[in-house]
Amino acid sequence: MWKRLFIMLAALDLLAVIAGLIVWNGLPKSGNTTAPTVPVPANAPTVQVDIGADAINAYLAYAIAHDPEVGRVLDSGSVQFGNTWVCDFAVKVLDHALPMQFVVTPIVQNGNLILHVDSAQLSFLPIPRAMVLSVLERAPLPNWIQIDGSSQNIALNFTNRPPKPFAIRVVQYSPTEQKLSLDLAIPPQTLSHQAP
Fold it and tell me: Which InterPro entries does this UniProt record tie to the protein (predicted)?
């Protein structure tokens, strides 16, 4: 008797999950559109910067502590560079921090950074990449961040990002040195607004 009840309960749970996914996929996607490329004058001062995972982790810690929007979603976060990037986050859900891990392959393309999602885990359980990207597609992201569920990519279109206070262009990623090289260009208008 208990085996039948267990099977019926499991079937009801499965139906609830399927119904939830149908409702979730019926929700509208984020209304972000590709922003027009903002030109940076050719005479803008440019600096090349090489950053490692430590710099990104320091920025993540700062953003979680000081940006209420980020702190509302994340409890902690870190990135490990290698041939692939291992991104560990503690996502806040109902006053609990759930561990989430993404493994992404970084691809530099035309000054932008494409993160191909290789795998995702929630509380050490694998979750389908399509589900993760479906959630991200509905998130209120800046216009220069695009989610492509069909190719399982997260595109960080730095060349479409407003150049305030500076423009960013990704030069390369070196897995051997574990450094991301960026060109930072400071438009003359920014410098003139900073002058006393």
Answer: DUF2140
pTM: 0.73
As given in the structure block, the two tokens for residue 84 are 């692939």
| Extents of the domains making up the chain | 35-194
Using DSSP's 3-state secondary structure scheme, residue 182 falls into strand
pLDDT in tens, 97-131: 888 899 999 999 999 999 999 998 888 788 888 88
Q: Summarize pLDDT for 13-47 with one digit per residue, the tens.
A: 544 444 444 444 554 555 554 445 455 556 677 88
**DSSP helix/strand/coil, 11:** helix
| Side chain identity, residue 56 | I
DSSP assignments along 75-97, one per residue: EEEEEE-SSSEEEEEEEEETTEE
* Pairwise CA distance, residues 158 & 179, whole Å: 17
